Structure formats: structure tokens, C-alpha cells
């Protein structure tokens, strides 16, 4: 498969908010082969005339972080397997957490382009906070606000260059 962008990251960083901003049309989340509903949401998006599919992960999250090993790992790995580009989302409000580091370790294993997207950079002070996410070890950190849309054009330009 190609032209698939997966949004991964711990709960509450704003993945679904960004997904909803990107997609024009949401797709069914049924996995026909197994007959079970998948916990990944698919949507169609386009930018600069290029069409792509976006996968939002983590709709299953119950609020507990204890399920990381069993559920999130499985879901994220499946999404990463399908993706051509990975958006690894983190949160400028809370800053870097241990769970972010767990996700980083999973994402790092995948040999695909990874963009760290520091969301909730709603003002210059919060954007400045995003610097700490370079500690995750990826080349570049994009700061965005999914709520206002600021910064989202820059990351989309970068994504479609890789599709
Ligand atoms: P997910 O669990 O990663 O899918 O996160 P959600 O998209 O459900 O968002 C979690 C919370 O963060 C919600 O209350 C959102 O309204 C809020 N949120 C998302 N994006 C932003 C943002 O750019 N700025 C701020 N201040 N809040 C945001
Ligand atoms: Mg969500």
C-alpha cells in the first residue's frame, strides 16, 4: 500500500483532533477479513493536489495507561505496518512523558519516515517547549496547533513530499 499516513502517540495528545482537521471523508472501520471492528479510523485527505489516506489510532483507549503493552502496541504496530509516513504526536502542554518514550521505541523500529509533531503549540511559549522533544532522537520536530490549525501547512507540505 502507498500514500498512507499513520498518526500515532499516547492518548490525549490530539491525534483525533488533527485527523478530523485533515480528513474530508471518513471510511468504515470494519475489518472484513476477520469480521471484527478495528480500532483504527481511516480517512481520505488531500493537500497540494495529492491524495492520501490518514489512519487515526487509539480510539480504544479506556483512560488507563496500563494497557500499553497489550492493546496500544498491537494497534500501533498494525498502523505502522500499513503506513508510508508516520506522524508521531506529542503534547506541548504536558511535555515529554515516559509513555512518549515507549512510543518512540516502537516507532524507531520501523524503517519509514517519522515526523515528530508537537501539538497544542497554541502560543509562542508552548512552541518553545517543543524543543524538549528533540530528546526523542528523531531528526525534526514540527510544532502545530490542531485546535487553531497553525503549523499544519508546514507538516503537510513535508508529508506530501514523501508520498
Ligand atoms: P487523542 O487521544 O490523541 O486522539 O486526542 P484528542 O484529539 O481526543 O484530544 C485530546 C484533548 O486535547 C481534547 O480535549 C482536545 O480538544 C485537545 N486538543 C487537541 N488539539 C489541541 C490543540 O492544538 N490545542 C489545545 N489547547 N488543545 C488541543
Ligand atoms: Mg483519539
From TrEMBL:
Residues 3-163 form the EngA-type G domain. Coiled coil: none annotated. GTP 1 binds at residues 9-16, 56-60, 119-122. It comes from the Bacteria. Belongs to the TRAFAC class TrmE-Era-EngA-EngB-Septin-like GTPase superfamily. EngA (Der) GTPase family. Associates with the 50S ribosomal subunit. GTPase that plays an essential role in the late steps of ribosome biogenesis. This is GTPase Der. It comes from Marivirga atlantica. The lineage of its organism: Bacteria, Pseudomonadati, Bacteroidota, Cytophagia, Cytophagales. The chain holds residues 1 to 163 of 434 of the full protein.
Amino acid at each position: 500500500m502507498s500514500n498512507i499516513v499513520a498518526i500515532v502517540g499516547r492518548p490525549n495528545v490530539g491525534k483525533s483532533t488533527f485527523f478530523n482537521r485533515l480528513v474530508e471523508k471518513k471510511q468504515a472501520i470494519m475489518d472484513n477479513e476477520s469480521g471484527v471492528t478495528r480500532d483504527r479510523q481511516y480517512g481520505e485527505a488531500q493537500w497540494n493536489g495529492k491524495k492520501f489516506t490518514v489512519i487515526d489510532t487509539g480510539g480504544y483507549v479506556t483512560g488507563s495507561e496500563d494497557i500499553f503493552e497489550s492493546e496500544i502496541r498491537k494497534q500501533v504496530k498494525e498502523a505502522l505496518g500499513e503506513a508510508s509516513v508516520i506522524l508521531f504526536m506529542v503534547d506541548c502542554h504536558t511535555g515529554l512523558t515516559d509513555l512518549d518514550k515507549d512510543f518512540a521505541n516502537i516507532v524507531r523500529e520501523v524503517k519509514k519516515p517519522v515526523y515528530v509533531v508537537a501539538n497544542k503549540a497554541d502560543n509562542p511559549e508552548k512552541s518553545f517547549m517543543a524543543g524538549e522533544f528533540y530528546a526523542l532522537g528523531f531528526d525534526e520536530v514540527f510544532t502545530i496547533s490542531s485546535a487553531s490549525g497553525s503549523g499544519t501547512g508546514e507538516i503537510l507540505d513535508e508529508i506530501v513530499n514523501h508520498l
